[in-house]
Amino acid sequence: MKNFLFLFFAITPLVAFAQQTLTLQECYVLAEKNYPLAKQTVLLEEKTQSEIAILEKGKLPKLDLNAQATYQSDVIELPLAIPNSTIEPPNKDQYRATLDANQLIYNGGNIAANSKLKTAELAAQQQQVAVNLYTLKNRINQNYFSVLLFQEQEKLLLSKMEVLDARLKEINTGVKYGAVLPASEQLLKAEQLKLEQQLSQINFDKQKALKNLSLLVFQDLDSNTILAKPAIFIAPEIESQRPELELFNLQEKQLETSKEVISKSNFPKLLGFAQAGYGNPGLNMLDNSFQDFYMVGLKLNWNIFDWGKTKEQKQTVDISKEIVSTEKETFLLNNEMQQKEAESDIDKYEAMLRKDSEIIELREKVLQATTSQLQNGAITSSEYITELNNLFEAKIDQQLHELQLALAKANYRIIKGDFK
């Protein structure tokens, strides 16, 4: 046992030098920065920029090269012979190659409206990524506070080990001079072995929780990592600031923007066009030879009656907005219920901690009296160990309740979205 304690305290300075301290807030930041899902924010922006660039190309001239060769069974002929006329009918084999250009002049702002819709879709998609990343905070909390609990339990067990070691030295002296039975010494040694077993178990559990936390924050965390115990303050008066609420607002904005696109889809479209070509025949069907030709003009397209299609599309969008609104109301209701439950947990652990302090104070007085009785041989080691265990169980309960209170407060802040 002496060798165990000597080894532990001997390596403590070396371990402390290499220790890494990490806070709960740093874990949140690391997870949101390094989690694979976070990459989607940039990818979605690149995708939207590419889609908008494609839409903008609709304003550029459209060029088409066309060529054809045909043979037809009949051609235009004059029904009557005209004196002194040398007009020949067109050939049945005909050839044509053209270069066609179309330039959009006006389309009622349809391209701009679609670009605006793409931007609104991007904002909603990126916010959805933020919502998905936000769920990591709950998983981080569970693992972070598990590690903290194991850290605190380890400290208490080591403190208990020191107390037992001191009592064992006193008992050894008593056994040496025949004042104490050897069984008392053996009971204390057995209790020390039990503590070593508990420390080993805590270490394995701590490593497991650290490994899970490492995967979430993408940092190498080991037994040298110290997690700082957070001081968490809550503000019940602050309204919910969950990212889901912003997502609902952006989804409604996206749907409203889509109505603008629907409206502009029926605006008139004005295009300018030009055609240059070479063929046989050309534009003059009576000239039976290869010739070049060109044509320029304007073209207007306006769907003046769509059988109520636009109206029905807008009604569909309005229904979608109502669906989003009901989802938002449902979320707020569930969120409020979660807040009430978290507040109840906070009150519960605060009340338990007040009792913990009183219990520990009484247990310390009992142990103090028991220690004196053990030293005087008035009680057995077994009775002393019982009271020692009672004290440290009370201290462990206090540590557990403190961390449960901190976890409840951390969860409450996540429920409220209070991270500003």
From TrEMBL:
Any single GO CC term annotated in Swiss-Prot or TrEMBL for this entry: cell outer membrane
Listed InterPro entries: OMP_efflux (IPR003423), TolC-like (IPR051906)
MF (Gene Ontology): efflux transmembrane transporter activity; porin activity
Range of residues in the leader sequence: 1-18
Keywords: Cell outer membrane, Membrane, Signal, Transmembrane, Transmembrane beta strand, Transport
Family: Belongs to the outer membrane factor (OMF) (TC 1.B.17) family.
Localization per record: Cell outer membrane
Protein name: Transporter
TM regions (residue ranges): none
Lineage: superkingdom: Bacteria
Keyword Lipid metabolism found: no
Keyword Cytoplasm set for record: no
